[in-house]
Amino acid sequence: MIILTPVGAMLFLFSVIGFKKSMSFVMHKIAQGWAKLLIALTCCSLTVKGREHIPRQGGVCFVSNHGSIFDILLILAYAGRPFGFIAKKELVWLPCINMWIFLLGGLFLDRKNIRKALDVINKGVRNIKKGGAMIIFPEGHRSRGQGLLPFKAGSFKLAAQSNAVIIPTAIAGSYDIFEKTGRIQTVSVELVFAPPIAVADIPREDRKRHLADRVYAVIAGALAQCAP
Predict the structure, then answer these.
(1) Beta strand ranges found along the chain (DSSP E)
(2) Torsion over CA: 94, 124, 74, 143 (sign)
(3) Can you tell me the distance from the alpha carbon of 228 to that of 223, in angstroms, rounded to the nearest whole number?
(4) CA–CA distances in Å: residue 58 to residues 133, 177, 207
(5) Which pLDDT tens digit goes with each residue over 78-135?
(6) d(C-alpha 174, C-alpha 43), whole Å
(7) What b/e readout covers 36-50, taking b as 16+ CB neighbours within 10 angstroms?
(8) Of the four, 77, 135, 154, 170, which is 20 to 30 A from 54 by CA?
(9) Which residues does 94 contact at the CB level (< 8 Å), separation at least 6?
């Protein structure tokens, strides 16, 4: 990240002066290569399934379980298209990190300010409606080896309000790479992109009640089929 920071700073400048769309594509390719390199350096045995389920165009919302700091890297490396994500507001003050979050399409969420939080959600909805992609981790925080945690229904606002295509995403083994022991471990990791769920096909009155449960069941089922 430090080595690429001068490149990122140049891309950031071009994004600010009106070339954000072009820079987003370039940034995605750089970040994708960076993510694959970091994953390769861990020497993990990685299995990726279901990439054929990811639409190449149109609004998409990846919904994933979240066990490790490596999850973003895994999806960034193999989703095959740029995506944004929602980060906590405190990260906006971290030099270098804040710039990369911006370049990758990240949005900063202030959980303590409801009005500002809604503005961020609405911006994410507009991004998806324009054909972009976003990722959400509906557990709310990293599970850190506790298994699949309950989903927060409110986290599906991005998908529900944008009529996105949801790609349920299951990640198994990522916690064991580093956080379990505090050292890099050579372990088996599986990344599964499940068949898409079209939010537009679900009646609006049922979305809040059933959408989280449906996606949870798909991810839980995918995790159950992953190798131990």
Answers:
(1) 45-49, 60-64, 84-88, 107-109, 133-136, 165-172, 188-193, 197-198
(2) positive
(3) 9
(4) 8, 33, 20
(5) 999 888 887 777 777 777 777 777 777 788 877 777 788 788 888 888 989 999 899 9
(6) 13
(7) beebeebebebeeeb
(8) 154
(9) none
Hey, how many other C-beta atoms are within 10 angstroms of the C-beta on 132?
21
Q: What is the CA radius of gyration of the chain?
A: 17
**CA 54 to CA 80: how far, in whole Å?**
8
Distance CA 2, CA 18 (A): 25
Paired tokens of 115: 């009005």
Residue 216 vs residues 28, 32, 60: alpha-carbon distances, Å: 28, 27, 17
Structure tokens at 55: 């639409």
Label residue 48 left, alpha or beta by phi (over 0 means left) and psi (-120 to 50 means alpha).
Answer: beta
CATH number for the segment(s) 5-225: 3.40.1130.10
Q: CA 131 to CA 120: how far, in whole Å?
A: 17
Give me the residues paired with residue 86 across strands.
107
pTM here? 0.87
Rounded to whole angstroms, the Cα distance separating 11 from 20 reads: 8
Q: Is the pLDDT of residue 22 over 70?
A: no
**Residue 147 C-beta-side C-alpha neighbours within 13 Å:** 6
The tens digit of pLDDT for each residue in 38-77 reads 999 999 999 999 999 999 989 999 999 999 989 989 999 9
Contact indicator for 53, 168 with CB cutoff of 8 Å: no
